[in-house]
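Issue: ligand-bound run for iron/sulfur cluster - logging full I/O for the record.

Environment: standard queue, default settings, no custom constraints.

Inputs:
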Amino acid sequence: MGERTGQSNQEEQSEERVFAPSYLWEFRCNGSACGSHCCRDWRIPVDTAAWERLARLPSKDRKAVFSKLVEKEDTGWETKHEENGACSFLGADGLCCLQTTYGEAYLPDICDSYPRVSYRFGDFIERSLAMTCPVAARLALLPDSPMRFEERTVPARRASSLTHPPMEALLIREKLRALQLQMIAILQDRTRPLRLRFLHLGRFLAVLEARYGNRLPDAEVLAACAENIKPAAETRRRGPSYTRLRYMGELMAALYEAEENYTPGRLNELAACLSECETESEKLLHSIHGHILENLAVNELFLRLYPFSCAGGFLANFKLFVLRFRAAEFPLLLKASSKNTQLDVETVLLLLGRIMEKLDHNRTAGELLKRRAAEDFDEMEADEIMSFL
Ligand code: SF4
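Outputs:
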């Protein structure tokens, strides 16, 4: 597909204020760089407005276009796929025929917006990119310097591609940015290992929730509060844990719906084998690819609007955030430990892309993780969660 910067004919707007990570402005969809990744094997729903635009095409074109669409009983219209998994509109040149023939305005909302995730907060929008897009992932994750955020006024995108933020986030929209920037500052404190930064974030959110509820203070008070509860640099390092590794192995098996390959015996073997080298593998992984993992954490935090990503309050959101991150990191640790070697950047990106696809595009996996985060860590405080995970 080509770059999708269009908006529907009916929704011409001039400009919008967008707060986003700086890498967003450099993103250009490039199907030849990613093998048109998002146009293969994924369900591509056709929203009602796009369906109506296509239905108004001249009859000859309409017939050709609708021969590539299918109506599913429970989910509505979507594009057909070729035997090789490619969307039926994907041309041999890697470009979308709908876009090249009729223009961006004829794309379904999902194709117009992906990999962007945009939330409207009244007069401004927060936007970032999903890490399932390989081109976006390279832009966001590979820079060695900490991810920066800025607001720009830019030409407006299609309004129907915007997502409504959760009400709790909307209610504090004037204070939201200060909270997000403070959480990001904690995650980007490179004087400490990433695990301690997560612990700091968990404590910070727990204190905010207990002290202020949803009446958040201003940026200076947030900064002072974060400073006061910084974990000591010498906080004891978590050692290898057979229980944790078995838990993570079992979680991955459940996420990949591959329980039959992960019998209790096999999980025990895996955990025993990993616990011998986990600490070293983790240290090595973070010493070389720590910036990638930090960027992933920061991007996820912003993209999913933590601490408003799930119901249940700030601490519940922290649990989900940590579990998702650990689920993304675990395949890297597994690979590094089993090969007893350091991973190259391409392998890291490939493994992260795979798990993010699983978590983002498979509703069952996403729901499973939410349920596990809520149930398995029900009574735990941030310190307990971080010493287990
Ligand atoms: S995966 Fe990303 S770069 Fe590739 S076609 Fe999709 S949006 Fe474009």
